[in-house]
Design a protein that fits this description.
The chain has two helices and eleven strands; from the N terminus they run E-E-E-H-E-E-E-E-H-E-E-E-E. By secondary structure, it is mainly β.
Length: 240
């Protein structure tokens, strides 16, 4: 499956408030021309231990909304909790191969791996000298050698989760925050779970969005209480 290169044109800090935010389904061919910093191609190897945490989801309650609708008969995935620090034990800034191995141990082999590419060659607005996109169906991870998370190391920089490729069933299923918020959660439940969340109506390019904290935001179907989260964006994408 061709990687949806939303991570090559989104920055988390600007996601909810920048009119130039990119569509979740935008392909690499639609990415704008970019400049890339002239950094060394030599990368420093680092030993990063990623440990799957003990999963504990405590879902806040709401009198008129539920945390997640049923999107799949598959059991919710454990060990990849969504946060502003990464996915479960895979933290932003961690060495790339270790993160791929960690996620693969939970989800199986990737459905797509671009390999390391020159961002200029693929028209991605990324700093650094090399980027990589690894997908597990509706979960895409972005790796680079230069982001606010780390420099000079090929590392995990960002992720995108959702919407479902086939428009119906999300795969992997059930990735949520520690408050039980995930794709399909209502705006009402999102506000109750994160009282300081910032909601933006967006525009024709980016659409309605939300910002929970540095490194964690996403897109909505709308801004009314009954609207829902359609995707998460975490970390530091290209253009940061």
């Amino acid at each position: 499956m061709t990687s949806r290169r939303v991570l090559a044109c989104l920055t988390v800090g600007a996601l909810a408030f920048t009119a130039g935010a990119c569509s979740d389904e935008q392909s690499s061919a639609d990415s704008t021309s970019s400049t890339t910093s002239s950094t060394s191609t030599t990368t420093t190897e680092a030993t990063t231990t990623t440990v799957a945490p003990t999963t504990s989801s405590s879902t806040s309650t709401s009198t008129s909304s539920t945390a997640l609708p049923t999107t799949s008969s598959a059991a919710p995935v454990k060990g990849l909790e969504i946060s502003g620090d990464g996915l479960g034990g895979a933290l932003f800034g961690a060495e790339a191969d270790g993160v791929v191995a960690y996620v693969s141990s939970i989800l199986g082999d990737p459905t797509n791996d671009s390999g390391w590419e020159d961002p200029l060659a693929i028209g991605a607005a990324c700093t650094g000298t090399t980027v990589r996109f690894v997908d597990w169906n509706d979960l895409q991870l972005f790796f680079t050698d230069d982001s606010p998370a780390a420099q000079g190391l090929r590392h995990f920089a960002a992720f995108n989760y959702g919407p479902a490729v086939d428009g119906a069933v999300l795969n992997p299923n059930g990735l949520v925050t520690d408050n039980g918020v995930g794709v399909g959660t209502t705006v009402e439940f999102l506000r109750a779970s994160y009282p300081k969340v910032q909601i933006s109506p967006g525009d024709d390019i980016g659409g309605p969005s939300f910002f929970i904290s540095e490194g964690l935001s996403g897109f909505l179907s709308g801004t009314s209480n009954s609207d829902v989260i359609i995707s998460f964006v975490g970390g530091y994408g290209c253009g940061e």
